TrEMBL record:
<keyword id="KW-0805">Transcription regulation</keyword>
<dbReference type="GO" id="GO:0003677">
    <property type="term" value="F:DNA binding"/>
</dbReference>
<dbReference type="Pfam" id="PF04542">
    <property type="entry name" value="Sigma70_r2"/>
</dbReference>
<protein>
    <submittedName>
        <fullName>RNA polymerase subunit sigma-24</fullName>
    </submittedName>
</protein>
<keyword id="KW-0804">Transcription</keyword>
<dbReference type="InterPro" id="IPR046531">
    <property type="entry name" value="DUF6596"/>
</dbReference>
<dbReference type="Pfam" id="PF20239">
    <property type="entry name" value="DUF6596"/>
</dbReference>
<comment type="similarity">
    <text>Belongs to the sigma-70 factor family. ECF subfamily.</text>
</comment>
<dbReference type="InterPro" id="IPR007627">
    <property type="entry name" value="RNA_pol_sigma70_r2"/>
</dbReference>
<dbReference type="InterPro" id="IPR011990">
    <property type="entry name" value="TPR-like_helical_dom_sf"/>
</dbReference>
<dbReference type="GO" id="GO:0016987">
    <property type="term" value="F:sigma factor activity"/>
</dbReference>
<dbReference type="InterPro" id="IPR036388">
    <property type="entry name" value="WH-like_DNA-bd_sf"/>
</dbReference>
<dbReference type="InterPro" id="IPR013324">
    <property type="entry name" value="RNA_pol_sigma_r3/r4-like"/>
</dbReference>
<feature type="domain" description="RNA polymerase sigma-70 region 2">
    <location>
        <begin position="20"/>
        <end position="80"/>
    </location>
</feature>
<dbReference type="Pfam" id="PF08281">
    <property type="entry name" value="Sigma70_r4_2"/>
</dbReference>
<feature type="domain" description="RNA polymerase sigma factor 70 region 4 type 2">
    <location>
        <begin position="111"/>
        <end position="162"/>
    </location>
</feature>
<dbReference type="InterPro" id="IPR013249">
    <property type="entry name" value="RNA_pol_sigma70_r4_t2"/>
</dbReference>
Length: 410
């Protein structure tokens, strides 16, 4: 096996096994710091050992075993004063864990631990992206539009609070679930978005491992709360978005916009399932939440056989509904994109420009301005806006697309 093959095996193992290894260690040792550091050490050992020893037949099992040993070594080093107690604890944990059912999923337990209401909402989301999604600190900082150092401090404090408050590692009881689920859904949505528009350097532009895991965990939560409209809405939104994944990046690695995608390449089964969930929520005649409205918007997009058949008036009406629930500048930006199709780019540009103070560091703001300016024939300011979007973007496929659009302006 070549060094390149080994590097690819380590990268793939990190994508596929990180959350499983961290979850297993958290369950065993009850400490997120130990779990994360031991997992990181295990992957570092793999980088050293696999080129010489070969990639093991079961990388996940090798990593979990190695991480367990690293964690035990750390505990023994750090707590000499309680050797007898710790030795007893470690021996008792050497027994194989009891089997868990489909719902008692270890990664789902880890998510609910990270999303405990004792933590602030943004902290819950950041911690889960790190512990479950395996995202790097720069990737998480970009997701929240904050500095990397500040995000690192936030995550460190969250892990300490979980340890000090002895927050349990479990899926909450049935009566506690509804109050806890909103934070979990927000996290899963962020994990999915990072997979669908990956921002890490050297990563694939679309990370199917993250989108698939977010969908899998959302399905588990839907089994826990089958009547929750927002759980159904998020699942529908993910499915309708995932259905377009293979059509979203061209053969030469460039982003393909929704308007330019080959709709025949969309996954018909995922679209049918997503549409069915949207129809079920409409039939319930209950006021929809944020994810249900976003799912409905995606249902309108995926119902059109050609981009020219898109019902933009319905999409703008749905965004009007969403703005009443979520008045964030990003929602306003997405509404303006739809308004451009209905009322023209000049009207949309005026709405976008009003968001500059709040979205000056957000690449999609500048990409949207660039496109609207291009459509209005204002080439020089469009070039400048494309340049700013390229500077701020982290996704390789998106950078390639924006660069081509800028260069077309001459």
């Amino acid at each position: 096996m070549t060094p390149i093959d080994v590097d690819e095996a380590v990268t793939r193992a990190h994508r596929e096994e990180w959350a499983r290894v961290v979850a297993a260690l958290t369950r065993r040792f009850g400490d997120l710091d130990i779990a994360e550091e031991a997992a990181a050490e295990a992957f570092a050992t793999a980088v050293e050992r696999w080129p010489a020893d070969g990639v093991p037949p079961s990388p996940g099992a090798w990593l979990t075993t190695t991480a367990n040993r690293k964690a035990i070594d750390r505990i023994r080093r750090e707590d000499k004063r309680e050797d007898k107690h710790k030795e007893a604890q470690l021996v008792s944990h050497d027994e194989p864990p009891e089997p868990v059912g489909a719902i008692e999923d270890e990664r789902l337990r880890l998510i609910f631990t990270c999303c405990h209401p004792a933590l602030a909402m943004e902290t819950r989301m950041a911690l889960t992206l790190r512990m479950v999604g395996g995202l790097s600190m720069p990737e998480i900082a970009r997701a929240f539009l904050v500095q990397e150092a500040a995000m690192g401090q936030r995550i460190t404090r969250a892990k300490a609070k979980i340890k000090t408050a002895r927050i349990p590692y479990r899926v909450p009881s049935a009566e506690d679930l509804p109050a806890r689920v909103s934070g979990v859904l927000a996290v899963l949505f962020l994990v999915f978005n990072e997979g669908y528009l990956a921002t890490g350097p050297g990563t694939d532009p679309v990370r199917h491992d993250l989108t698939a895991e977010a969908i899998r965990l959302t399905r588990l939560i839907r089994a826990l709360l089958p009547g929750d409209g927002e759980v159904a809405g998020l699942l529908a939104l993910m499915l309708l978005t995932e259905a377009r994944r293979t059509a979203r990046v061209s053969a030469n690695g460039e982003l393909v916009t929704l308007a330019e995608q080959d709709r025949g390449a969309w996954d018909a089964a995922l679209i049918a399932e997503g549409h069915q969930l949207v129809r079920e929520r409409l039939a319930a005649r209950v006021a929809p939440g944020r994810y249900q409205i976003l799912a409905a918007i995606n249902a309108v997009h995926t119902s059109a056989r050609d981009v020219r058949d898109t019902d933009w008036s319905q999409i703008v009406a749905l965004y009007d509904q969403l703005v009443r629930l979520d008045s964030s500048p990003i929602v306003a930006l997405n509404r303006a994109i739809a308004v451009a199709e209905l009322d023209g780019p000049e009207v949309a540009l005026a709405a976008v420009d009003r968001l500059e103070d709040k979205l000056a560091d957000y690449h999609a703001f500048h990409a949207t301005r660039a496109d609207l300016l291009r459509r209005l024939g204002r080439s020089q300011p469009a070039r400048a806006a494309y340049g700013k979007a390229i500077e701020l973007a982290g996704n390789t496929a998106e950078i390639a697309y924006l660069t081509r659009r800028r260069d077309q302006l001459g």
